[in-house]
Give the backbone structure.
Amino acid sequence: MNKINAKLILGICVCFILFMASVVKAEEGLTIVNQLSNELQQQGTVTSDEAKALEPSIREMIEKGESRQEIKNVIAQAVTQAHAQGLRGKDLAAKVHAAIQERKMQRTEAKTAAKNKSSKMDGATKGKSSGKNNKGKR
């Protein structure tokens, strides 16, 4: 019975630690979102209402691993374009979200292209080495 209790307590402790780690990570994400929102407001890029509307988009970019600078650049460009088109509120947020999706596609394409290039280079290297071996056998 003592072994079962010890395992149960250990399991509960592990679950608690994992839960607390996820809470801390979520709080860090919210802090970064708030900091970026404040920076964008201070730069005059967005109003406080626009910043609140953009928070889900900022959070999404953070989750995707974008750097703070990249997030600010993508959002600033999208907001500038949206303002030039006269967009505000939800329409502005939709424009920024679309820009984020476009950036996501660009990164995916770049990674795929780099992976393909690497694979081709590996194949070319293997082909050259096998060709040298064939010449040596003749």
